[in-house]
Amino acid sequence: QVQLVESGGGLVQAGGSLRLSCAASGTGFSITAMGWYRQAPGKQRELVATINSGGSRTYADSVKGRFTVSRDNAKNMGYLQMDSLKPEDTAVYYCNARMTWGSIYWGQGTQVTVSS
User: Fold this and answer.
1) Cα-flanking dihedrals φ and ψ of residue 69, to 5°?
2) Do residues 105 and 3 lie in contact, with contact meaning Cβ atoms separated by under 8 Å?
3) Which of 56, 108, 102, 59 is nearest to 80 (CA)?
4) Residue 107's beta-bridge partner residues?
5) CA-to-CA distance for 4 and 2, rounded, in angstroms?
6) What is the pLDDT of residues 66-105, one digit of tens each?
7) pLDDT at residue 28, rounded to an integer
8) CA–CA separation, 66 vs 57, rounded Å?
9) How much is the pLDDT for 74?
10) What's the pLDDT score for residue 27?
11) What is residue 56's predicted lDDT score, i.e. its pLDDT?
């Protein structure tokens, strides 16, 4: 069974930074792609950033130039460095991972709150 656990969320002032981590645990799996999503109150979950096993990255337009997605394949870890945070970045952030056999797993989410 694969489990994902996010950490690193919290309260930060506008202009500040946070680094989210996503730890994948379990045995006998290989992650092809990792993604970060967020969901603000009353809104749909939206894609923030993705990174595949080769290191190719994609970002939502709203976070380009401010957020950086990375991963450590050896440790099955994913990261989202968030700089120049804005109040509109406030949301619950989720990581997901797509496995080589096609299954997708989600973490439980971590709250990020940016005060103005």
Assistant:
1) -100, 140
2) yes
3) 59
4) none
5) 7
6) 999 999 988 889 999 999 999 999 999 999 999 988 899 9
7) 64
8) 14
9) 87
10) 66
11) 96
| DSSP per-residue codes, the chain | --EEEEE--EEEETT--EEEEEEEE-SS--EEEEEEEEE-TTS--EEEEEEETT--EEE-TTTTTTEEEEEEGGGTEEEEEE-S--GGG-EEEEEEEEETTS-EEE---EEEEEE-
Residue 54, φ and ψ in degrees, nearest 5: -90, -5
Q: State both tokens at 12.
A: 């930060």
Torsion of CA 104, 110, 35, 19, to 10 degrees: -150
Q: Which residue has the tokens 């950086």?
A: 68
What residue type is 58 in one-letter code?
Answer: T
Which tokens sit at 29? 């799996």
Structural contact between residues 2 and 99, judged by C-beta atoms closer than 8 angstroms: yes
